[in-house]
Design brief:
With about 300 residues, this protein is mainly alpha-helical. The protein has 8 helices and 6 strands; from the N terminus they run H-H-H-E-E-E-E-H-E-E-H-H-H-H. The protein has 2 domains: about 210 residues, f41 fragment of flagellin, N-terminal domain (Up-down Bundle); about 35 residues.
Length: about 300
């Protein structure tokens, strides 16, 4: 058999290069705790990890949207709670005003309090969210309601605000427009809103108030309270849905992390054992190569 000096050197050189590369890779695995650091380590594993990372990034965005929506719905419910409290106070004053024991001065005092409730209600209707936007303004960035020159209160918002994405093909309305929250009430004389009901009640308490105005106000305030209750139930249902979506995202994150660990994380103990084995073989190969380089071709031919 013909043996050349080049063959004698090339074969162990290639082996040592391969062993060094393997040792470097194992050392990186031990240092990072990861067995896939580049597509060349595992094409299918790298692709799976990329998909998991994209899904995680999407869910992080959905999670941020859910928190924002929860904050908006919480602010909406707080505002509606204040509205409900004011309407309940107005309803109690209507009962008081309907008593035969209340004289003109007493009705005048109640009228002043109803006007104060009306003013406070306008303030609640124009409250802003954490972004400084009108909570009940819909798509409008301006005040949801405006007091007109004649004292009436008009809706000046811009319809319903855009729904917020909370999942793939899933979105939710995080606010309620002022037109829906304060209007759309079926009163004694047809569709009306809370401001008109309170204004009519205040007018009925004046010296020129229409007969039966207080009784009408009581019925209309009952309708307004029912309306607020229905609106708050809707807000509560949406908040519950957000809680479920947040829980789903948390479970998905746990599942993704388990999948990522199985694909990407290295078995440190096994990597260390393989590294020690590889280094031992490398050292032996280097020692053999050192002896080989001290020989000449004539030594092989003896």
């Amino acid at each position: 058999m013909r043996v050349t000096t080049s063959q004698s050197f090339d074969r162990p050189s290639l082996m040592m290069a391969s062993l060094s590369s393997q040792a470097d890779k194992l050392q990186t695995q031990v240092a990072t705790g990861k067995k896939i650091l580049a597509p060349s380590d595992s094409a299918s594993g790298w692709q799976q990890l990329s998909s998991l990372k994209r899904a995680g990034a999407d869910d992080n965005a959905y999670g941020a949207n859910i928190k924002a929506a929860q904050a908006l719905l919480g602010a909406t419910d707080t505002a509606l709670d204040q509205v409900e409290t004011q309407l309940q106070r107005a309803r109690a004053l209507a009962v008081q005003a309907g008593s035969d024991t209340v004289n003109a001065e007493g009705r005048a005092a109640i009228k002043v309090e109803i006007e104060a409730i009306l003013e406070d209600l306008v303030g609640v209707a124009n409250s802003t969210d954490t972004r400084g936007q009108p909570l009940f303004g819909g798509t409008s960035g301006d005040a949801a309601f405006t007091v007109q020159g004649d004292g009436s209160v008009a809706w000046t918002g811009g319809g319903d605000a855009a729904a917020i994405p909370i999942g793939e093909n899933e979105s939710i309305a995080a606010t309620t427009s002022g037109a829906r929250a304060f209007g759309g009430i079926t009163g004694s004389s047809g569709a009306t809103d809370m401001f008109q009901i309170l204004s009519a009640f205040a007018a009925a308490l004046g010296p020129d108030g229409a007969a039966g105005g207080v009784e009408t106000a009581m019925r209309d305030l009952d309708a307004a309270l029912d309306h607020v209750g229905t609106t708050r139930a809707s807000v509560g249902a949406r908040a519950f849905r957000l809680d479920l979506e947040a829980e789903r995202l948390g479970e998905a994150e746990i599942t993704r992390e388990a999948a990522r660990t199985g694909i990407e994380d290295a078995d440190t103990a096994e990597s260390i054992a393989q590294l020690q084995k590889t280094l031992t073989i490398l050292q032996a190969t280097q020692a053999s190569f050192t002896k080989l380089t001290s020989l000449s071709l004539f030594d092989y031919l003896r």
